[in-house]
Amino acid sequence: MKKIMMLTVAAVMAMGVSVTTIPEAQAGAEGRCKACHDLSGPKHKTGPSLKGIFGKKAGSTDFAKYSDSMKKGGWVWDEANLRTFLTNTKTGIVALAGDGAKTKMKFKMKGKKLDDVIAFLKSN
Question: Which class would CATH give 20-123?
C-alpha cells in the first residue's frame, strides 16, 4: 500500500500537477478573499460569507446584496463553475448566467492562486 501511494505521488509530481495542502489553500484564500468575505462564519461583509459555499446554489445564502444575475443563477458552486467565475468575474458571470449578466465582484485570478482558493472553498 505504501509503495502504491509513493508511486501515485511520484506520478502526480512528474505530470507537473501542483498539490495544494489545506494550509496553503487557506493562506491563498485569506490573502485574496478575506477583505470582502468572511471565510469561517456566517457573517457577511461587502460580499457573502464563503463558509460552506462549495456545493451550494449560487445566490442562495441570506446575503442581501447579490446582483440580480447571481440571485437568479441556478448553477451550483462546484470546481468548474468556481474556476469559470474566479478566472474573470465579469466574463465568468456571462458564461454562467448568460448574455447581459452582471456581478458586483471585480476580480481575476489564475494559476496556483486560483487552485489554492478553490481547494480552500472545497475544504471549508
Answer: mainly alpha
